[in-house]
Design goal:
disordered C terminus, Growth Hormone, Chain: A, 4 domains, 0% strand, 511 residues, globular, mainly alpha
């Protein structure tokens, strides 16, 4: 096999992976422009996001199987080419239906890039440098969701939403050329004939597709009150259960679930799921809090999120070096504790919080995630044979993405329901017999009258001002509850680090 410098290989596989990760969030800020340009409703336009996430989720766990079926380099080239072509077609979309169709193709092309790049990095770097390899991978994973909305907003405002997709074309073309020259398959990853597991393929597609739709549309459709969500949920659960049964006994499974016999791998996937549940939940809540309650602009909200990404980029190379000198379990526990504490600090926010009070927990979260991601990935994959690396990274990335989707769905539901509950409880205190209320109405009425309001309207205006403030306080309390929930969940998952262990590839999996 041809020898290529490991850092050239790292750049080659991370370039397309980064633009694919950016594309998971870049469209969000362009949604209003897309809706207006293509004459679509709000619910219709959100399918441009959902369709990408659904196809992305379906293809990720199939990556290892497709790599064996087609040959890994051939499959990597096919994925980048499909992603690049569909990006051009998304930018050229003539109506909403065509945009949604090409977003599905874009997700199918892009979904494999994350597990493939992770597997190639782990094989290219020697075991002693796996921490550094995962630092390179982690920077892209953490940086993409943060830079995506900023880049998407700037491109949309400066040019048009079409260029959010067109920008992928030159980068994708460069990536194809680099893969042709610098990526080579090891003998065990070359193309081979296999019997296709049609039942596994069907159940996986149905299960993950319907699950992603439920997570993305659940809050908007009012969860179990919606027959559509109930129907999708039933198909998702039944299909995934059948998929597990079929794959366990299949001769050539789409996803080899027997890898979960490795205790460190199973525990690592569990921790990764809840870690990204926490991360995505908190970085969705934070800008909503800043823009709806604190009056921040999109740019100022981005300035709060940005330093956290920088903190991750600084922490990851440090963690990559430390895992070779300190037991990874200690670094993992430290990173999880810092991440949990940072979200706990977010749970203490109020309506008087200043910029620096808000930004420091976000920086702490970024640093904690940086120290968490490297040892977690290193220990999770340490006992996996190279031949199974594509399958293992596919599962690992799937659970990471599902954790993020579940986190977003959970916190948005907690936020909406919590605000209603707190508003109901606060309203109970607004009675005509409450002296504080009467005093407040009197003061506000006098202030309104001094500004020219009629005395007959000033009391009504005062009550409106008080009720508007009550709604803000109820929303603030619901944000506190959601952040506290995420923090508590992260602390509860911390003891599972004791089950993690550092192994060597090919060893007998610990049960």
């Amino acid at each position: 096999m041809v020898s290529v410098n490991k850092w050239i290989v790292a750049v080659t596989v991370m370039l397309p992976t980064l633009i694919e990760i950016v594309d998971t969030s870049v469209v969000n800020v362009s949604l209003d422009h897309i809706r207006g340009s293509l004459s679509a409703g709000i619910d219709e336009s959100t399918w441009t996001i959902t369709s990408y996430l659904v196809s992305n989720a379906i293809i990720i766990p199939m990556t290892g199987w497709l790599s064996r079926l087609l040959g890994r380099k051939r499959y990597l080239l096919l994925s980048i080419s499909l992603f690049t072509f569909s990006s051009f077609m998304c930018g050229s979309a003539w109506n909403l239906q065509s945009l949604v169709f090409f977003r599905v193709i874009q997700g199918l092309g892009g979904g494999a890039l994350q597990p493939l790049s992770q597997a190639i990095l782990l094989e290219t770097f020697p075991p002693a440098q796996h921490g550094m390899a995962m630092a390179v991978f982690g920077i892209g994973i953490m940086f993409g969701p943060i830079i995506g909305p900023l880049v998407g907003g700037w491109i949309t405002d400066s040019w048009s939403w079409h260029w959010v997709f067109y920008i992928n074309v030159p980068i994708g073309t460069i990536s194809i050329l680099m893969v042709l020259f610098f990526i080579f398959d090891p003998p065990y990853m070359e193309r081979r004939r296999m019997k296709i597991d049609y039942f596994g393929l069907f159940f996986l597609t149905m299960g993950l597709g319907c699950l992603q739709i439920v997570l993305d549309k659940g809050q908007r459709e009012d969860w179990l009150s919606s027959p559509f969500i109930l129907y999708m949920g039933f198909i998702a659960v039944s299909s995934l259960l059948l998929f597990i049964v079929v794959e366990w006994f299949a001769e050539n499974p789409i996803v080899n679930l027997k890898v979960f016999k490795n205790l460190s791998f199973s525990t690592g996937n569990l921790i990764m799921f809840f870690t990204f549940f926490n991360l995505f939940g908190s970085i969705v809540l934070l800008p909503i809090y800043l823009q709806t309650l604190m009056g921040y602009t999109s740019m100022l909200a981005g300035m709060v999120l940005g330093p956290g990404g920088v903190a991750s980029m600084i922490a990851m190379p440090m963690a990559g070096r430390l895992v070779t000198k300190v037991h990874p379990k200690a670094i993992l526990a430290l990173g999880m504790a810092v991440a949990a504490y940072s979200v706990h600090l977010m749970g203490q926010f109020n309506l008087s919080a200043d910029f620096y009070t808000i930004i420091w927990p976000r920086i702490l979260l970024g640093g904690g995630m940086g120290f968490l991601f490297i040892p977690l990935t290193t220990m999770t994959m340490s006992g996996i044979r190279k031949e199974e690396m594509g399958n293992a990274t596919g599962i690992f990335n799937l659970l990471r993405n599902l954790g993020g989707s579940c986190g977003v769905a959970t916190v948005t539901t907690l936020l909406a329901r919590g605000a209603q509950i707190h508003q109901f409880r606060l309203v109970e205190h607004l009675t005509p017999l409450d002296r504080n209320l009467a005093h407040g109405v009197e003061q506000i009425s006098q202030a309104l009258e001094s500004r020219g309001f009629f005395p007959s309207l000033s009391d009504q205006g005062a009550l409106g001002v008080i009720y508007r403030e009550l709604q803000r306080q109820a929303s603030m309390l619901s944000f506190n509850d959601a952040f506290s929930f995420l923090s508590t969940m992260m602390f509860l998952i911390l003891p599972f680090t004791l089950l993690m262990r550092r192994g060597s590839p090919g060893q007998t999996p610990p049960h």
